[in-house]
Amino acid sequence: MNTPDSPWFRREGLALLTDFYELTMMAGQWHEGRTDQRVSFDYFFRALPPHTGFAPSVGLGLLLDYLEHLRFEEGDIAYLDSLGVFHKSFLDYLRAFRPRCTVRAVPEGTIVFPYEPAVQVEGSILEAQLIETALLNLMNYSTLVAAKAARICLAANDEPVMEFGLRRAHGPDGGVTGSRAAHIGGCTSTSNVLAGKTYGIPVSGTHAHSWVMSFPSELEAFRAFARQYPDRCILLVDTYDTIKSGVPNAIRVFQEMRAQGVNVRAAIRLDSGDLAKLSKMAYRMMVEAGLEDPLIVASNDLNEDLIADLKRQGARINGWGVGTQLITAYDAPALGGVYKLTAIQGPQGWQPRMKLSSNAEKATDPGRKQIVRYYDADDRPLGDMLCSEGSPWPESGAIGGRSQKQPHRPAQIEGAARAEALLKPVFADGVRLAPREPVAQVRRRALDAIAALPEEFKRLRNPEIYRVLLSEELGGMKDRMMTNPELA
Predict the structure, then answer these.
(1) Where do the domains of the chain lie?
(2) pLDDT tens figures, 399-442
(3) Which of 172, 180, 289, 306 has the greatest CB tally within 10 Å of its CB?
(4) Residues near 253 by Cβ (< 8 Å), separated by ≥ 6?
(5) Would you place residue 1 in the very low, low, confident or very high pLDDT band (cuts 50, 70, 90)?
(6) Burial 148-175 (b: 16+ CB within 10 A, else e)
């Protein structure tokens, strides 16, 4: 049986969660005798979703579960053999394969920005290439949904947001992984029972219109639900007519419960119609009936913009159920995370590598790196600098560096009070280096990081662009390699 925070999927059997060319490249490297060639890869994304100023890095826990249990089973070997592409000797190598790479990463839930290597993988070129597809699959979607959830929860302004997306998610994995990411991003609960069991996320829900329609009357349906669930009774009031029947019948049931000595908070859900108008009318009716401080939950294809607009209209909604728009990241359904080779180990040590492109924004940052985050005197993030691994960095004051996209140009972070190195070792020689973190702990880290961000980075429209610099050393190296492609 799974325990909370264990992967919901079967841990074994994911070796073939990869693109075919990863295996053909792996076989080619093996036949070329390059099993000992060590390389370094970075995972990062080049752009945030539109109108988004930050993203919590989410998915690391899933990636470490994958790496820890990465094995080629006999069924995998038999399938690969049936393709007629791979030599028997290479398949024997796969039978004994175990990941021995070293992984450094920002702690899961840490806020990251474009071009920052949230995960770094160092190991043999065979294993580093093999895990590329799975790493991108596990990190990109989780980070995307967590960023969307964070925006929705900011719009809700500390009111509870319930994630209701399972039925519109992209399959079971999209549902469970998405629920995990949404909770880390700020959602207080999920309707997804499997996600609740697997990751310890609080589960919540009301009832469907079919519950009401299955009884002889709406009033009888409400009474039956209240009898069964007096401690979590939220009544869906829009099956027939919200104002003429739904709310009056709900009021009657809550009054009856109180008369019977049940100290219940009156709670309803609106799932259609003019949510702003209906919520204000329902609130007034409930308060006038003596049902103080009612909980009014709204659903119906909500997103951060609709929530912000409902608040602008003075809607009396204080709970939000968000499904499709969240679990599918509807307005930007993919995060363009990439995994790029940045260094190769040779006789003289690590040699930086850089992908050049006619599009300057696609040029990668060379070499093994560290992310240094600078904070102001109030412990709010000011900006980050990418530094070459092993090189010193300034701790405070005015931090000079180079522009990430135009490394010949100077750039600066001013007023730094302290610095923090973000990348930490998390996996080595086949095992994770710390116990699996509970999702609640990851969520707390993400929420604390979001709260610490200055407000200008959290705007729903036109957020400020967070500053990410290259150190003088790294920026100079990148500039030289861009100018002299033979160095790359």
Answers:
(1) 20-146+333-487, 206-300
(2) 999 999 999 999 999 999 999 999 999 999 989 999 999 999 99
(3) 180
(4) 219, 222, 223, 226, 235
(5) very low
(6) bbbbbbbbbeeebbbbbbbebbeeeebb
CATH fold group of domain 206-300:
TIM Barrel (3.20.20)
Distance CA(72)–CA(12), nearest Å, equals 8
Single-letter residue type at 106: V
CA separation for the pair 224, 232 (Å, rounded): 13
User: What residues contact 201, with CB distance under 8 A and at least 6 apart?
Assistant: 179, 180, 183, 189, 190, 192, 195, 439
Cβ pair 335, 144 in contact under 8 A: yes
Longest CA span, the chain:
83
Q: Which CATH superfamily, name and number, covers 20-146+333-487? A: nicotinate phosphoribosyltransferase (3.20.140.10)
Instruction: Give the CA count within 13 Å in the CB-facing half-sphere of 211.
Output: 18
Distance CA 148, CA 304 (A): 8
Q: Which one, of 163, 153, 161, lies nearest residue 192 by Cα?
A: 163
Do 77 and 91 contact (CB within 8 A), yes or no?
yes
How far is residue 120's CA from residue 342's CA, in Å, rounded to a whole number?
10
Contacts of 55 (CB under 8 A, 6+ apart): 45, 48, 49, 111, 112, 113, 143, 144, 146, 147, 150, 335
Q: Tell me: the pLDDT tens digits for 234-292?
A: 999 999 999 999 999 999 999 999 999 999 999 999 999 999 999 999 999 999 999 99
Is the model's pTM score more than 0.70? yes
**Nearest-10 Cα torsion for 123, 126, 130, 136:** 40
